[in-house]
Amino acid sequence: MRFGVNYTPSVGWFYHWLDFDLDDVRADLDSIAALGLDHVRVFPLWPVFQPNRALVRPKAVDQLLSMVDAAAERGLDVAVDGLQGHLSSFDFRPSWTLTWHRRNMFTDPEVVDGQAHYLRTLTEALRDRPNFLGMTLGNEVNQFSDKPHPDPDPVSAAGAESWLRRLLDVCAEADPRGFHSHCEYDAVWFQDGHPFTPAQAARIGAATAVHSWVFNGTAQQYGSNSVATVRHAEYQVELATGWARDPDRPVWLQEVGAPSPHIPVESAADFTGQTLDNALTCGNLWGVTWWCSHDVNRSLVDFPELEYGLGLLTSGRENKPAGLRVAETIQEWRARPTEPAVRGTALVLDVGDEDTAPNRSTCAPGGQFFDAWAALAQQGVRAAVVLASRAGDTPYLAARGITELVHPEDVR
């Protein structure tokens, strides 16, 4: 089991790449390692690293390598996201994809070639670092493909899959041993018609990445301390497991946090502890990477209010209650690892065609499937998820330890 954090620099946020200071990075990593965490996920800013389609700045790559080396000195492994992409409500795309050079980032051959060049360059530079875990293609880049983005780059489901496979192949060619993956925000699981699909998320790449945010309607509809809210991450991990062809495919809870005011500040530590305890009951969980390491400094403006206080530490590198709760959970788990829950009961999911999942909104907060899973959770059941197409597959069910199937319409 891996426990890590998404590294948000305490000085300058991700704009620190413009004025990179390794001493600040080292101090941040010291405060992260002190919590007992074992890895960080880091975010090069795409337009800073590749300002021209043919230019990946060597100095920027060297700065990334120095960050990875500093992490190694503190016992921290590093996962690297490539295409940034989208971070905390801000978009970062290079000028060669915008305005006068406006081109679709998923379908334009030259843009995709440029992305491949960028990812190959980073992966080849990183592959010999012993603490390099692998590449993620980019952070929630699916948000560029569809509503509610104000200027989307439309792509079909087939086009999205082609894009994912092309770029993951580039990473694998550059570093065959790497733990290379992709990640999407939860439209992939919950939004009908979204071109990035659950099948892609759960069947392409080394692991299935889950980003669990209860500001998606869960906390608003069910309450900040409800079972549906504190078990939301567990629900998404089990949903991801249900979509996988391989019953043992790892699921990476890659982002999860306690957003205020949806989770009151005074409840953040309790929510954090309950979320972790529930997620750790999932048998396929590879690890948890909390969002995020350090608060955004209030001297920076225009962030949504909830983004300022998501850190486990303040921007002054002081521990917050949620950070201390994470440290306690890690210490307890390492002293006495808990066995995953036996999930003998599975809720059957039918969203139509598996490739496009046209009715996946049933899985979203307020949907019939979500409500049925939450109702079972309220009754104390730790339910698995099984696709309707696998409900009659006896060897598959046996491999997952499932002995009882329940349909959403039968849950009271």
From TrEMBL:
Q: Could you list this entry's UniProt keywords, alphabetically sorted.
A: Hydrolase
Any one Gene Ontology molecular-function term assigned to this protein's record? hydrolase activity
InterPro entries with a match to the protein in the record: GH
Q: What protein does this entry describe?
A: Glycosyl hydrolase
Q: Which organism is it from?
A: Solihabitans fulvus
Classification of source organism: Bacteria, Bacillati, Actinomycetota, Actinomycetes, Pseudonocardiales
